[in-house]
Amino acid sequence: MDSRITSRFAHTTITSHVVNKADRAQEATFQVEIPKTAFITNFSMIIDGVTYPGEMKEKASAQERYRLALAKGPRAHLPPRATGRNLEQFQVSVNVAPTANATFELVYEELLKRQLGKYELMLKVQPQQLVKHLQIDIHIFEPQGISSLDTEIAFMTKDLADALTTTQNKTKAHIVFKPSLAQQQKEPGKLDTILDGNFIVHYDVNRTAVAGDIQIENGYFVHHFAPRELPLLPKNVVFVIDKSGSMAGRKIKKTKEALLKVLDDLKPEDHFSLVAFSGRVTQWKPVLLQASEEHLESAKTFLSNTQALGATNINEAILLAVRMLDESDSRKQLPSGSVSMVILLTDGDPTEGETKLQKIQENVKATVAGRYHLYCLGFGFDVNYAFLEKLALDNGGVARRIYEDSDADLQLQDFYQEVANPLLTMVEFQYPDNAVELLTQDSFRVFFKGSELVVAGKLTPQAPDLLSAQVRGQSNTQNINFQTEVNVVNKEKVFEDSEYISHSFMERLWAYLTIQQLLEKAVSASGTAQQSLKGRALDLSLNFSFVTPLTCMVVNQPNDQGQRQLAMKSMETGKQYMEHFLTLGAKASWYIVFIIISVPGTSTPLSAGITTPPIPVPLEESLKSMERAPHFILSLFLRKKQKEILCVDVKGSPFRPLSLISDPVQGIEVKGHYKDFLDTFSWLQVSYKTPEVQVYVNQDSIIVIRGRGQHEKSTSYQWQKTFSLGFSGKIRTKGKNHKKEKTTKKKENSMLPSAFRLHSSFSGCGQHFPS
């Protein structure tokens, strides 16, 4: 691995050489994980002395060729896919002849982003075997000077300490990791490697010029701006918390833990409030209040009493938060020059109130009207991230995925720290009109402590020898104007040492940043404007050989293998892990739901068992053309012991609950939240009109809600407990050890659910699905 960082722009090359010492052909696999923010720029293979280079193509045209390649045999491989929070996997396999060798080379580039006061380069080291010649070289060149440098290595041991060397001077650093075979072994004499994890380099640079640092190379410039010692701006924040049923269990627990700590981090001059929403929206206070000790304790009590149950009314929750900011502002309760924001945390799509995603986005954008910042945190890998991303980008914020792991609370806190300390608002970069062109984004609504603003562009032929720049912004109620001037010739001389830089790195930095920003703008745009943005991003991607969401790299393998490899950029979507999970064969679980219903026009009730059978179900000849096995088998039993089998495919949205039963006359409704990519129901809810009772069931607990409004009472029960509840002698509920039975006596002829059971394994009809 060789990584060269120049002015935050990282150019990384991963090379792997394999030799087949066997007397038969064997398959060689090259598998690496790279940062999601990186763009692949080249991939090539040298097989038995013949080079097979990658060719950049537009994704739309190349995908059809790849689809045809998939049909030729099992060796046509899937494109890269996300494998974790910050990484995506690239994999290619080829046959290597006896005694022959193969060399793989992957090149990717990325602009390192400053977060919480540091830049971070992450390399995933995972050789999966002992490697005779394994070496990691990292070269850093920062003309501003390196102020801090450290490494964080997940697999580091005392025995590996002398395999790591770091040398550093004022502007350069060189990190080398070169372990011997013995140092790589988990145990002496064993073939298992200890090298498995992240190799991370953190660093920061010196900052002396308050107007930032301008660097110039080969006719392009980059302006880095991160002033120090500015006073913090007070902030006004409304935390909007999803407490719908799908948040039950770990999600709501981790959310509470994180927000309790976030509340402690609020400064006395900050103002805040809380909104919690399910199908209904509740607020801690109707306006924002100062973060005094008394108010914080009251808010913590409100937060601790929040329980996860019910539907999801995102639209009303966000609009209420905006109205609270408006009301507080109209009362002159918010500090002058402060920064106002809404932080939304949710795990799903809207299911109550306004449910059309585009309409919600329009409502929120019109109500916010560019005055506040909306940050959207999506909880879990199955969240509708595209919806949240557009919602945030439309309103001056960003979206972030929170992974449902044991450190979810720390992820929430880390994000809050990124936006907790605003320093400037309405920041604008200005340069002489005749000096620069092709500028990237040059105005920013807010600058936070620990981050950095970056502007890049091209110098015009008539640019003067001295390039001047101004950076304007607002701090509290003051207008601030920073100015700087640099000598173009002197700045270009800085990068004459080619040992530490890649060729024309600044032009590629400009292209990388421009593509990123065009794609971001395309998320908020529509129609011809969106197509224009994507078209410009596509042209740049092809010209600079970047694998982006609009392009892919095609590698033709040897003729005798008859296959074509395709490298594509993975996308942040709600289903990004579906293919990955299906290939892993993860531990399975399954659900069975038994319902008794009455059929209109008959007096004979039917018993419907919605199951996923543990063994494949033979299909009739007429059904064998199905693309995949059906989601569920419905067994219908008549009282005369007649039986019918019905296979059902669920085509609904994986984010919206399905209405399983609705009987307004008898006052009963059954809903379920179905996850298509896992083929499971994540929760089920049975609602009765008289008496007014809701029974909500998920994998963690059973929640019984009685009454509505001021008379609403809810009780939560764990599956491990046994309980028996009666409601006016009309409903009786029992549960024990992952089983729940329900009997109802409303009227003698009423046919309501009589049995409801959940089990802990799940098989698909004709195939196996993970849970």
Describe the structure.
This protein is 19% helix and 38% strand. It has 771 residues and is α+β, with helices and mostly antiparallel strands. The longest helix has 20 residues, at 505-524. The strands form nine sheets. A ten-stranded mixed beta sheet has the order 12-13-10-1-2-8-4-5-30-31. Strands 17, 18, 19, 20, 21, 22 and 23 form a seven-stranded mixed beta sheet that branches. Strand 37 and strand 38 (680-688) form a beta hairpin. It is built from twelve helices and 45 strands. Among the domains are: 235-420, Rossmann fold (3-Layer(aba) Sandwich); 593-757, no CATH class.
* Portion in strands: 35-45%
First-to-last CA distance: 36 Å
Mean pLDDT: 80
Largest sheet: 10 strands, mixed
CATH level 4 superfamily of one domain: von Willebrand factor, type A domain
The low-confidence parts are 73-79, 575-641, 728-771
CATH topology of one domain: Rossmann fold
| Shape category | globular
The number of helical elements comes to 12
The Cα radius of gyration reads 30 Å
| CATH class categorisation of one domain | Alpha Beta
What's the total number of strands?
A: 45
Helix coverage percent: 10-25%
- In CATH terms, what is the architecture of one domain? 3-Layer(aba) Sandwich
**Pairing-aware structural class of the strands and helices?**
alpha+beta
Q: How are the strands of the largest sheet arranged?
A: 12-13-10-1-2-8-4-5-30-31
